[in-house]
Amino acid sequence: MSPAAVLTPPPAAMRRVVIVEDEGILALDIERQLSRLGFDVRGVAGDCEAALVLIEREKPDLVLMDIRIQGPLDGIETVLKLRERFDVAIVYLTAHSDPNSIERAQQTLPMGYLLKPFKKADLQNVVTIALARDGIERQLRRREELLRTTLSCIGEALITTDEDGAVTSLNAAATTLLGPQPRSSEPRHLREVLPLKRPDGATFGVDPVQAAQASGRVDFEARLDTPEGQRSVVGTAAAVRAGLASYGVVLAVRDLTELLLTRRQLEFSERLSAMGTMAAGVAHEVNNPLAIVMTNLSFALREPLSDELREALVEASDGAQRVARIVRDLTLFAKPQPEALTAMDPRRLLTSALALTRGTWRSVCGVDLSLGPVPTVMASPMRLSQVVVNLVINAVHAMQGSSRAALLTLSSHTNERGDAVMSVLDTGPGVPAALHERIFEPFFTTKSTSQGTGLGLAVSRSIVESHGARLTLDSTDAGARFSITLPAAPRPTPTVVPTVCWIGPATDELRRLGVAAVPAEADAVRAELAARPNVVLLALPPDEARRLASSVPELEDHFILVTSHPPPRGVVRLVPPFDLMALAALVR
User: Fold this and answer.
1) Which of 450, 505, 514, 567 could pair covalently with 366 via S-S, beta carbons 3.0-4.6 A apart?
2) Distance separating alpha carbons of residues 387 and 394, to the nearest angstrom
3) Residue 123 and residue 151: Cα distance in Å, rounded?
4) How much is the pLDDT for 293?
5) Backbone φ and ψ of 92, nearest 5°
6) pTM for the whole thing?
7) Does an H or E element contain 367, and which?
8) Given strand 167-170, what is the order of strands in its sheet?
């Protein structure tokens, strides 16, 4: 601001003056002189009480305050009371220039002093300068408040420092990003408030304050550790200069974590879509020749054959059935699915996931399958199958290399609210309590880079929540259990039940259900599989079950062991309670 601007007479709207002076003649003389000079004198008061009442009523732009006035408060104490309620400029009138009075008066930030006696020109100059200076300071305060409000509305984190790098202010976005800052009388350096690291996690080698002061402006990309976790940020540091001198730096920091996450999820979705398209094409190409093979095998098995030839054809039929099941489950992912949810039995998700991931778990663990009754739910089979498959693969990876007996447990039950709950439990090392929520964060993973990207659980939770459902973790040192809780559909849909084979002695219950009982002999089982390659439930002692399974290899993808003993590796055990017919429909 130029000197000429400071001495410019105040506008007419800012010329209201109140005089506080207990010497009546002097007060009258000051009032007369100011009026002649064009100022609007709104009144005169001789003591502190009258002054407070007059100022509250008239709301002047300037108060000429005598330091020594009548009443319980002197002029300085009266001004202190005024400052609590009014924003008004003060000029002191005094016949005393002792250091103590001047020091006390300075604490009230006056616009000037007039020593009695004073000349008319002195009065005019002091009042004019005081009002002009007060007008300028009011404009500055309004601009500061406008700037402060503007900065609080900006979504980017803004941080200011002094020339030494000590933080002087943070806007609301910076406080949200960095968390509440501790109260301290000592200034904190930028590196303490903004702990930047290089994107690879190494120490950030550039001091933004020094770099900005050296070049005027510097851009940076970094990783930032915050109370909410690691964030990816970009920023700009610009020096605040007056001529060649720098007296501070302003940093604008933008959090790109969500943007990068969205971009990576989009890339992930595009890759998944490409895989689905490819799977659909493979399934189409495989289904046609596979149908011809299965038809010819069925025709050949109805003809008189030698035992050796029949055994070979049965093995071929079993292999074809296995390929058909794999193709069928792949199409669950490959088919374009409508956004509208369909009514389904959620236990189908567990059995389908077992079939799709058999190559992953068969050499690692056995499986307990506990399919308790659940209500029908409204869901997208394709999207939720993706979730369960991911949970099963994670569970198997967690058990690899563990010293414990590896057992994967898939179960279903209905909770007290009537919701369907599907659970995947492993006997791995579990998940530390501190990571229970972090494992659902995008790109956070406890696996090696060759096993995971850190997107699986984040995408899975997103899919589950889009169904109005919940994906939760219950983990101890005994293993980790992931549960999907799905609300029941308004109207359950009945399940179509196929035929079932039961290897073992016939019972009245089996007859009532219409389940065929097959003797536990290799030839009889082979013949049944060739004629009706449906679900096979093996209700035998474990040793006898293993013997039969080893002598009839084609049983591998058909039977489910019903026993109280732990299942051998690569075998699914059915754990009570279970619905035999519902199980058949699910596995079918």
Assistant:
1) 567
2) 11
3) 42
4) 84
5) -85, 140
6) 0.43
7) strand 366-371
8) 167-170, 157-161, 245-255, 229-242, 217-226, 196-197
